[in-house]
């Protein structure tokens, strides 16, 4: 049986420090490799100039990497594929509706690499495709057990192994035939999470998940809304939803001291687990956790939602107007 153990924020910070200590060594390695193989020394120099963990944490008092991992657990994707000509492509991406393009441009500006492009009529994505940038810059920044959802943890595990094999092939440590054989096998494995692959979540731990991860995950999967409780009575609510992550939602419930239990929801033939609360006492505690910490367009929603909670709670007409305006804003920016 496969297991990934959950970790505390303190353990995660220690691992991040260790990763950062190795960063300069890794970048010296890639620079030497590029020069030796007459590749692009310009790319190696660019890798050296990319932001350190300390710089990334500016504007993220709860840790940028933890926030980034939470966002990826919700809306990120790691995959690799082989073209008909036999070449391999490795891609990391974060997808968002067009109305939240602000979040994708924030990632590009913060990480100082990657690109943003449209992905259909209603969505866009931030992506990194350069395997050297992925291998030497992005992946070393993630701590052990960075991802808390089964799907993303398994996906990342396969991606990380595949990219390592690809780089070994590029430096002639293994043959092209061996490389392709290993990569095809991993690609097949990555398509479906094994039933016995588990991410273990600590039982009743106030430090788990970390606040940074929770803010990032909420950026992707959280909803700050107004719910019609009864006729002419709108109440403030917060919710999170996941298809196969009841234990993770239970961990969030315990961390935030939410009294309502995780429930199973259904729409048509689709089932998912949902954690939600409309408790005034709970929301009073949640507002300072998320207000001014969300980076995408949801920051505007949270600010207006929180302000109305403080000033307009119980005022049906004011809340109805806000609900309408928030819905229209999404439509006009899609």
TrEMBL record:
It comes from Ourococcus multisporus. GO terms for cellular component: mitochondrion. Residues 69-162, 214-306 form the Homing endonuclease LAGLIDADG domain. The keyword Ribonucleoprotein does not apply. GO terms for molecular function: endonuclease activity. Pfam families: LAGLIDADG_1. Keywords: Endonuclease, Hydrolase, Mitochondrion, Nuclease. InterPro entries: Homing_endonucl, LAGLIDADG_dom, LAGLIDADG_Endonuclease. This is Hypothetical homing endonuclease.
């Amino acid at each position: 049986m496969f297991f990934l153990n959950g970790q505390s924020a303190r353990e995660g910070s220690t691992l991040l420090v260790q990763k950062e200590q190795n960063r300069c060594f890794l970048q010296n390695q890639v620079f030497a490799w590029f020069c030796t193989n007459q590749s692009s020394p310009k790319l190696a120099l660019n890798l050296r100039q990319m932001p350190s963990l300390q710089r990334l944490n500016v504007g993220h008092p709860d840790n940028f990497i933890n926030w980034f991992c939470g966002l990826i657990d919700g809306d990120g994707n790691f995959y690799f594929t082989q073209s008909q000509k036999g070449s391999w492509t490795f891609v990391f991406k974060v997808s968002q509706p067009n109305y939240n393009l602000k979040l994708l441009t924030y990632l590009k500006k913060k990480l100082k690499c990657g690109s943003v492009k449209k992905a259909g009529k209603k969505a866009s994505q931030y992506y990194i495709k350069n395997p050297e940038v992925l291998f030497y810059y992005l992946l070393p920044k993630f701590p052990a057990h960075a991802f808390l959802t089964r799907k993303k943890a398994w996906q990342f595990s396969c991606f990380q192994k595949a990219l390592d094999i690809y780089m070994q092939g590029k430096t002639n440590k293994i043959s092209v035939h061996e490389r392709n054989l290993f990569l095809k096998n991993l690609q097949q494995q990555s398509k479906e999470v094994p039933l016995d692959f588990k991410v273990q979540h600590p039982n009743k731990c106030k430090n788990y998940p970390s606040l940074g991860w929770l803010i990032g995950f909420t950026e992707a999967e959280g909803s700050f809304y107004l719910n019609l409780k009864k006729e002419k009575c709108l109440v403030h609510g917060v919710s999170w939803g996941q298809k196969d992550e009841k234990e993770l939602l239970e961990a969030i419930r315990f961390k935030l001291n939410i009294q309502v239990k995780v429930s199973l929801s259904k729409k048509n033939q689709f089932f998912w687990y949902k954690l939600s609360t409309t408790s005034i006492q709970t929301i009073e505690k949640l507002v300072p956790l998320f207000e001014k910490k969300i980076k995408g367009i949801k920051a505007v929603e949270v600010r207006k939602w929180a302000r109305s909670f403080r000033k307009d709670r119980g005022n049906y007409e004011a809340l109805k107007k806000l609900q309408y305006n928030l819905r229209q804003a999404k439509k006009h920016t899609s």
